Backbone:
């Protein structure tokens, strides 16, 4: 199923609303102002998404937070943290120096919290704007290579919504990114609802 430019714009807008809410919550947690922006959104097959991320991250061990969703649409939502970005975010949010011995102990909790906030922000935006009911599983934290993070057993028949989220921590002039991956088994249903919403507006 090919996605039109208008449908892609609508998807990007939904994700932007969600990360905007997530950024507000993150700002309440820290002294530094964090901005989250989505430079681009792509709709890819699972294979194409895997190839794009594998080319970028090779054999890097990445941190990821993932949760399943069911309801009007179902699939898996995940946030992938490139290694440098993960260390930077954790250091800023916890006040620990990068590379300190205590950092690993708090890293999992911190990244899980960020993942939970960002994914829930985006899923909440999709659910609210499109007026669809959704249920979520508890988030799971994983550290692995992209090979093992991206290819769940049923992904071959799914569409992947790949969004690059760029975070800027203004006082520290730090820019990094996190990758939002939505494996939507019911992608056609999502697009149908988006088109109904576009028609109404």
Residues:
């Amino acid at each position: 199923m090919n996605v039109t430019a208008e449908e892609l714009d609508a998807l990007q807008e939904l994700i932007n609303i969600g990360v905007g809410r997530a950024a507000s919550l993150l700002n309440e947690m820290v002294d530094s102002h964090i901005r989250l922006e989505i430079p681009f959104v792509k709709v890819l097959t699972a294979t194409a998404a895997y190839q794009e991320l594998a080319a970028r991250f090779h054999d890097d061990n990445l941190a990821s937070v993932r949760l399943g969703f069911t309801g009007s649409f179902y699939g898996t939502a995940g946030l992938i943290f490139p290694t440098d970005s993960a260390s930077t975010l954790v250091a800023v949010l916890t006040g620990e120096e990068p590379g300190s011995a205590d950092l690993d102990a708090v890293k999992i909790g911190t990244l899980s919290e960020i993942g939970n906030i960002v994914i829930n922000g985006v899923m909440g935006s999709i659910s609210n704007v499109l007026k669809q009911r959704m249920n979520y599983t508890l988030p799971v934290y994983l550290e692995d290579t992209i090979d093992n993070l991206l290819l769940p057993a049923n992904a071959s028949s799914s569409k992947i919504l790949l969004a690059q989220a760029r975070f800027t921590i203004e006082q520290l002039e730090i820019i990094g990114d996190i990758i939002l991956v939505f494996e939507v088994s019911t992608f056609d249903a999502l697009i149908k609802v988006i088109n109904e919403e576009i028609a109404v507006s």
